[in-house]
Specification:
Elements (H helix, E strand, L loop, with lengths): L12 H25 L9 H12 L11 E11 L1 H6 L10 E9 L15 E6 L7 E6 L9 H11 L10 H10 L4 H9 L11 E2 L4 E4 L5 E10 L15 H11 L2 E9 L19 E14 L19 E3 L3 H18 L11
Antiparallel strand pairs: 1-2, 1-9, 2-3, 3-4, 5-7, 6-7, 6-10, 7-8, 8-9
The protein binds protoporphyrin IX containing FE.
Protoporphyrin IX containing FE (HEM) binds next to α2, β2, β3, β4 and α4.
Length: 353
């Protein structure tokens, strides 16, 4: 099912809001059914509670994503390799160029958040594979995710809620959370050793969750994927400031298209496929599945990415989700965030990006 990608101008927006609400609700249905069938909604947590908590942490900014609020729209194309076609029947792997809409972002619910304080770089992508063959994804630059289960992510968000007076996080609460959650160790170790890159263009983006590719013969393979930049990684500098990422990327794209290699990592029997906190051994085989080329970038408020929900469960035939419980939760929560922001656009703020 497709989401609206239309651009709006202020006039007539209110009259369209009802239609968007309906579309947003229809959009939410498959995610909610999946969440229900995956047993996620039978726990006491609802997608609304997640989004409410994200608003507590990042503020409520009308018309913006409740997480990864600061970002810019990008577009270009994906050119798959023949090796990708051997692993999945997905239409996005048919020979040729497939148009792409994407969004580069930093985490957090604040659209004015500081780039130089962000621990991650992120990328949402929508690859056109022909009718009913669209592939959407949302990727982070970390090597693993911080927790394995949605309810633990919720508990982490609660522990991160800033004090209303000082605006600071409570270090004791965070320490207590991490002590109770040893599965966060791999993420914390990665974070302590990694300086975020000085550009969206030289950052690597990882699926973290696992998925299943099905080939022509019906053989299924568990895998994860990464977009590996063709520009060499450079650490961010102390004087980069709070707003360098979007301007830097637009400058680079104006000079030349920016490229990433789509690399698949294949699981071996016994590898944890439902736990995003656990990386697979580096010696697992990898496959070059093609090249992502980004040749345009612009502000999110006017771009196509504004009205796209980069729901990781919008998958073409030939790719299906693993049983990782984060996926069902992400899909349902993104949908609620999408519904809120898409119905607020008449009143939204207008930050620079
Ligand atoms: C239970 C775990 C998670 C929750 C509750 C969550 C929540 C959210 C929400 C509410 C949004 C905004 C959606 C929108 O309005 O369009 C979002 C965006 C995003 N999330 Fe997550 N997330 C989770 C896990 C992850 C993981 C594991 C990754 C990476 C592998 C990830 C990557 C992203 C990215 C890249 C975006 C920005 C997409 C865009 O540009 O629209 N998230 N997340």
């Amino acid at each position: 099912m497709k989401h609206p990608h239309t651009r709006h101008n202020a006039a007539g927006l209110r009259s369209r809001t009802g239609r968007f609400t309906l579309i947003a609700l229809l959009t939410a249905l498959p995610a909610l059914l999946f969440a229900w069938s995956a047993g996620w909604l039978s726990s006491r947590l609802s997608p609304q509670q997640f989004v409410d908590q994200l608003e507590q942490n990042g503020g409520r900014h009308a018309g913006f994503r409740r997480n990864h609020a600061k970002g810019l729209c990008v577009s270009g194309y994906f050119e798959p390799s023949a090796d990708a076609r051997r692993l999945s029947t997905a239409g996005v792997f048919a020979a040729g160029r497939h148009s792409v809409n994407g969004r580069l972002s930093i985490p957090g619910g604040n659209p004015y958040g500081a780039d130089d304080k962000a621990p991650l770089r992120s990328l949402g992508l929508q690859i056109d594979g022909g009718s009913a063959h669209e592939w959407r994804m949302a990727l982070n630059s970390s090597a693993v995710f911080v927790v394995a289960r949605p309810e633990d992510f919720y508990a982490l968000l609660q522990a991160q809620q800033p004090d209303p007076v000082s605006g600071r996080r409570d270090k004791e609460k965070l320490r207590a959370f991490f002590n109770r959650h040893p599965e966060t160790a791999a993420f914390r170790q990665w974070q302590s050793q990694h300086t975020p890159s000085d550009s969206f263009a030289n950052s690597r983006y990882n699926s973290l969750n696992s998925f299943v590719f099905t080939d022509n013969a019906g053989t299924e393979r568990y895998l994860r994927w990464s977009l590996i930049p063709q520009q060499a990684y450079q650490p961010q500098a102390a004087d980069n400031g709070a707003d360098f990422l979007a301007a830097d990327f637009r400058r680079r794209v104006a000079q030349q298209p920016q490229r990433w290699t789509l690399q698949l990592q294949l699981a071996a029997d016994g590898d944890p496929v439902n736990d995003a906190t656990r990386a697979w051994p580096a010696e697992r085989p990898t496959v070059n599945a093609g090249t992502l080329v980004i040749n345009a970038a612009g502000p999110q408020q006017q771009g196509a990415c504004r009205d796209i929900n980069f729901d990781p469960l919008i998958l073409p035939a030939g790719i299906r989700p693993s049983g990782d419980p984060l996926l069902a939760a992400r899909s349902a929560v993104y949908s609620d965030s999408f519904t809120r922001r898409i119905t607020e656009q008449a009143t939204q703020e207008h930050p620079h990006d």
